[in-house]
Amino acid sequence: MKIAILGGTGPQGRGLALRWAKAGVEVVVGSRQKEKGERIARELADRLGSDDAAVTGTTNQEAVRAAEEFVVLTVPFSAHRATIESIRDELKGKILVDVAVPLDPENPKRVAMPPEGSATEEAQALVGEEVPVVAALQNVSAQVFDEIDRPINCDVLVCGNNLEAKKKVMALVEKLGCRAYNAGLAEQARCVEAITSILIRLNISKQTPFRHAGIRIWPETEA
User: Fold this and answer.
1) pTM surpassing 0.90?
2) N or C: the chain end with fewer CB closer than 10 Å?
3) Structural contact between residues 89 and 127, judged by C-beta atoms closer than 8 angstroms
4) What angle do helix axes 11-22 and 34-48 make, rounded to 10 degrees?
C-alpha cells in the first residue's frame, strides 16, 4: 500500500508518516517544494533506520499521483482550500482523508468554521461528490504521533458521506495501533473538529496534569 501525506513536512504529517511507515505502509510525503519534501523524507527514513523506500518525498501533485488510493491532508487550515484546489484534478479515483481543523488563528481554543460548516464539508464541496472525503485523526496531537515508540492511547472518530470509503479509512487508521469509530456523515465533522479546540484548552490549562489529551470511547457498563 502506498499513501500520500500532504503537509507531510509539518509536525502532524511527519508523525503520521513515521507511524504508518513503521506499520509497513509506503508513504509519499508531499510538499509545495519538491526539495523540501525529499529532505523531510530522508530525515524520517533516518529516524526509522530504514534503508528502503518506505518514505519518499516530492511535490503535492506528484505525491497524489503516486498514491494508490489514500491522500491524507494534514496542512494547516489556512492552506486547506488552496492545497485542495491545487490537487483537485489529481484526486479522481482517490479517497481524501482530511485531518484539518479550522482553529481560530487568533485563539486556538476556539474553532472558526468555514461557511460549509466544517473543514471536511469545505473539502467535499471543493472536490465534488465523485471524490469521497473522510475526516479522521483531528483529535490526536502531533506530539503523540511523533512519539513512535509509545502507543496512541486514544480513539479516532471518522466522518464522511461514503460508507465504503469510511470503512477503508478506519482500517488505515487502525494500522496506527488505535481504534477507529464511524461517527456519522460529513456534517458530524463539525462536532469532531470542534473537540480539538476543547482538547487544546485542556492541554494548556494549568489545572490539568497532562499536555496531550485525546478522547476514548468507553462502554458505560461492561457486558
Assistant:
1) yes
2) C
3) no
4) 50
